[in-house]
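Hi R.,

Here are the chain sequences for the assembly we discussed:
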Amino acid sequence: MDLRYTDDEIAFRDEVRGFLRDTVPDDIRRRMVDGEHVGKDDMVRWTRLLNDRGWAVPHWPERYGGTGWDPMKQYIFLEELQKHPAPSPLPFGVNMVGPVIYTFGSDAQKARFLPRIANLDDWWCQGFSEPGAGSDLASLKTRAVREGDHYVVNGQKTWTTLAQYADWIFCLVRTDPQAKKQEGISFLLIDMTTPGIEVRPIVTIDGGREINEVFLTDVRVPTENLVGEENRGWDYAKFLLGNERTNIARVGMSKQRVARIRELAAKEMSGGRPLLEDQRFLEKLTAIEIDLKALEMTQLRVVAADAKRGSTGRPDPASSILKIKGSEIQQATTRLLMEVMGPYAMPYAQAAEAGWNEPPVGPDYAAHAAPAYFNTRKVSIYGGSNEIQKNIIAKAVLGL
Amino acid sequence: MDFDLSEEQSILKDSLDRLLGDKYGFEERNRILKSDTGWSAEMWRQYAEMGLMALPFAEADGGLGGGAVDMMIVMEALGRVLALEPYFATVVLGGGFLRLGGTAEQRAALAPAVAAGETKLAFGHTERQSRYDLHHVETTARPDGAGWLLDGAKSVVLDGDSADHVFVTARTAGGPREAAGIGVFLVDAAAEGVSRRGYRMQDGRRAAELALDAVRVGPEAVYGAPEEGLALVGAVVDRAIAALCAEAVGVMGAMHAETVDYLKMRKQFGVPIGAFQVLQHQAVDMYVATEQARSITHYATMMAEDDDAEARARAMHAAKAEIGRAGRQVGEAAIQLHGGVGMTEDYAVGHRFKRMTMIDLTFGDGEHHLRTLAGKGGLAA
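And here is the predicted structure of the full complex:
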């Protein structure tokens, strides 16, 4: 047991830091620090800079553009991105559909889609959840009926993140309504420009336009866009959701937020002194830091275990801890950041809306605090709600 | 970074687990608990035979040269069975002063006997008004020829009733709460002027009140600089906190496993109560807290030998705070999920809960360490 980074790991971390210092555009970094949303153009610009360096899809097999880094280096890379901060690779292509395609897809699908994911030539979105299929995802109803060399798809997807930017959507669809609910599902890749697809925004409580409803009406999808075998989609979805949990702790992001809280609490006054000198405030911040340090070590234990076991694509069920604690800490940091702003967390910033050019009310860093707090409520809901994670641990780890 | 045990560490863990598994069942522990001494001389002998007492000492001092990870392994194993022997006081605390503060002569005089299990040690630091502050020392040490004259009293000295020698802090200069002017002295428990009153603590472990009335010690009794001993105390106590955290993880892991077993076994409404989701989620919360405690203990273990005293101290504040919080959560939930039987002396879970509670109160509870770390500006400040 040696609980320190090796010299090689430290050298790698420094290499990543140097790259980020030299490469991340200042305006993107500033938007990340201020808690603003990073738009499509920024994401594309940044992803191509990463791809030029060969780091856009680090965990993929090398023959598809991966780096060959071990899990510890992959973790260090992501943590450094989050701490800098710079945007993490867009998950829908890089972490979700990409691995499904290179694991279960045809050679033609691999050749067609994988390079375009790495360069963000194609923006992907995820068509899993439906109005009646949330935590009980397998009860989804979107129907695909085979007609010759096409599937005809009808149904509705929801909570579709950034579908407004998407070129493609990967969908779970029901191809055999007679089968047991997990056994009649297929995994389809659908071009968003196909006639019959309509995207409607869902405005979230923070005023954000991240998520959407996607309506599919008689959408004709070539059968060549079926991944793997018909009616095996649930297996691919489980594989995908397993990958989703590996980076869900967001330790680097929370570290960056803690540093930001410290920085701004030194500027904001309370009782005539900087808030950062208030013992009660410091105790709350410190409690978060301690929890985060423990989570970091838990994350490293999971990463080290993954490295030992070899990447099976099947995360340790213990990684559900990462989801639960990671989301709780993210929520605690945004709550505390809002507390730092005091009354200046109240004004609604309309700067993002067209035609608004008034100066901000109060300090310019205050405007996004409350929306970030509101928005972060989602992290204990998405990716399998924390209650679902507890069910997973109860069953898979505790045997209850 | 590597979380796997080395071959030697695996052997240590396996052989200790085997010994404790054979000899330290709940019934046997109860018998030991109710004995006159409150711990087992026979187990003590077996620990020594296995090399547990020699573990942290350098090979030159008759030891095995073990590090913080080895100590973590031992303390977690002892925590799992609620071992009652004065290992922590003798090897972690007393051994810590010997290793980190002892000159070659001082180590040669005592370390071999400690490593062989022949001599037991303790550390007296608490005073009536000190609470958890190691720098609050009113016991005095006045120069007396080449040696010193000690006067004062030490309270709740862990395993102080069975110790042959006790390390104590005493003030050589300055006011009662000054960091400077504190010395560390080794006192023979049988020396003239030393009186002690042994007693049982809530968890069955032993402690003593120690009175020092004009106790004369020679120059060889001083460990470290007589006016600058607090740094040595900090170094020893930081390592002790890492070890206590490991013991706590052993206690928590056992409480959690036992609770999950109980949920599978106990039937109500015709089903095992573990079938109820509300209880499952409580068991998961215990699991998450236990694993987070294990993680912070790894961190404390990693930092225990760090040369940067300030960074090391911050890590221990963080770890002890987390252990205090997690330990209480896991312990209280373990009792709750056991229902009425969790309240009885006949079930192990209550004993574990009591030990966990005492660990929190040893060298500063979670609130104390959170407050202290916050006062320093936090973990990363």
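Residues 21 and 81 of chain B are 8 Å apart (CA to CA). Chain B touches chain A through 43 residues (CB under 8 Å).

Let me know if anything looks off.

Best,
T.
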